[in-house]
Specification:
The chain is mostly beta strands and 117 residues long. Helices cover 0% and strands 54% of the residues. The chain has strands at 4-7, 10-13, 18-24, 33-39, 46-51, 58-60, 68-73, 78-83, 92-100, 103-107, 111-116. Strands 2, 4, 5, 6, 9, 10 and 11 form a 7-stranded mixed β-sheet that branches. It has a 4-stranded antiparallel β-sheet with strand order 1-3-8-7, with no helix packed on it.
Length: 117
């Protein structure tokens, strides 16, 4: 079992930056692929970034490529999402997730990111 707790959300002006953090419990954090997804009001939840267990492989949705960076510190059981050049369209609840045996099995409670124009 893994418990995930996100932090770092908030209100920022367009063009600004935020860094989200996701702290994980459990001794097997380093074995999981981790991801960040987001859900805007009235829209489905979509993944925006993921990172392999060792950090050597990352993936980004086209909508955030070049602006967001995912990273992880396995010693601290934490995954990060650095978000730069934020746009109003990035406004959403951001969720951290861990993939176990091929499924996104564990989710955090989410953190709100609001980008004002």
């Amino acid at each position: 079992q893994v418990q995930l707790v996100e932090s770092g959300g908030g209100l920022v002006q367009a063009g600004g930056s935020l860094r989200l953090s996701c702290a994980a419990s459990g001794r097997t954090f380093s074995s999981y692929t981790m991801g960040w997804s987001r859900q805007a009001p009235g829209k489905e939840r979509k993944f925006v970034a993921s990172i392999s267990w060792g950090g050597g492989s990352t993936w980004y949705a086209d909508s955030v490529k070049g602006r967001f960076t995912i990273s992880r510190d396995n010693a601290k059981n934490t995954v990060y999402l650095q978000m730069n050049s934020l746009k109003p369209d990035d406004t959403a609840v951001y969720y951290c997730a861990a993939r176990d045996t091929g499924a996104w099995a564990y989710w955090g409670q989410g953190t709100q990111v609001t980008v004002s124009s």
